[in-house]
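Entry 14: structure prediction run for Cytochrome P450. Input pasted below.
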Amino acid sequence: MIFILFLLLSLVYIYLTWNFDYWTKRGVPSPKARVLLGDLPNGLLKTENVIYDIGKIYNNFKSKTPFVGMIQTRVPRLLILEPEVIKDVLIRKFNCFRYAELVEIVDTKLDPLFAKNPFLLMDEEWKEKRADITPAFTSNRLKVLYPIIQDLSAHMIKYIINESKKNEPLDSLEVAAKFTTDVVSNCIFGIDAESFTKEKPEIREMGKRILEPNFSNVVKLFLAESFPFMRKLMRIQFMPNDVKDFFVNLMQQALKHREEKKICREDFLDHIIQLRNKKNISELEMASHTMSFFSDGFETSSVAISHALYEIGNNTRVQDKLRDEINKNCNKSGLISYETLTELPYLDQVFHESLRLHPPAVMISKQCTEPTDLEFDGKRVTVEKGINVFIPILQVHCDSNYYFEPDKFYPERFDDGAIKDYLDRCVFMPFGAGPRICLGMRFALMQTKAAIAAIVQNFEISVNKKTQNNPLVIDPVAFINVKVGGLWLDFKSLKKE
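Run finished. Output tokens:
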């Protein structure tokens, strides 16, 4: 009996450590993995966000090699450290790394709306959807939507004024999420989500649950990432059925209302109606388009706005300089036109610097779809099909090799067109890079900059002591860059009542 137990334990140990020399055999430097925990122990145990494990490896190896091998539980991964190799993965050799890691995990039957997000689509289906969505973000269409965003910005300002009278700090992420929920609901469905007037508006509550992690999915994701053979055995549903049904019904109601009232409005829903008439797309496809717009425009933009407000509140010099630029470029009504908003240089610099320090997605994971070589400075590795490649956006953004005093919030580093150089070198990637760059980037920039400009124009912002600072810590279980404890700010109105 003891012998059998010993044999079983030995087999389990051999299975768990089978790939531990995978990278050594290929001449690729790698840390020493631990049984079951691999090289990402804190991310696995959820004691810290996985990006901190990756950060330690990045810092230990960045001056020695352009890439480093890792083990996630027992599965080989490749961490890219050199921007030129990052450019290979995202741009030059895009066809060899064209899938996101979640592609094989998402169940198209259980998650028909989530599975249709362009981020998860493959090959021809992705190309077709990209071609469908791109025209929705033309300058003319965004310009038509801008007055809606201005109106909702005014609602947000009124809300902050009323809440500030309570002498309590506000969670900047919650304020930003209310704003982006109202914006995308109005621009997509043509309805007011009433996030600033209702205690718990239904659209806001349902929106929260789209990417909300739950224990069951966290466990399933761990198993799927650590034991690839289990991917086809498990069924992971990211979007709950009631959330899916809610948004499908919302789209149906919006369509019915628009057709019955013969409403013509050049927004995203109008674009989807045109797609239906032109290509005869199904109701499910229409709903998936609206959900892609909603989830992409709501979640990441609110994270971006909240971090920008935090940094502005923490830097009086920057805040004063930005407010001065905004005030000087307002029209007689005290508003900023669409054309002016897109051309405010210091607002651009402030927002880009915030995205550098706090990218909504701290890491990109790409799956190798066909064997290829990656090479830099005489060092080469053959990446086999199925190997996932990690691109550590946060670490690259905060690397002193590319940015002077990288931990400092200094918007002027993006002055004089410097952003083009950062983008070209793949050392600034808040929206990704290459063919898979975020399709809604232009809309995201418009709504985030409109929100920041409106708030800075109307309030003096400061960081409340309730914010767990020094340093800010990323939530261990969050899929995007959300900080533990929230970013709490005080707002002092600059307008005389």
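Notes: The longest helix spans residues 283-313. Will compare against the previous run tomorrow.
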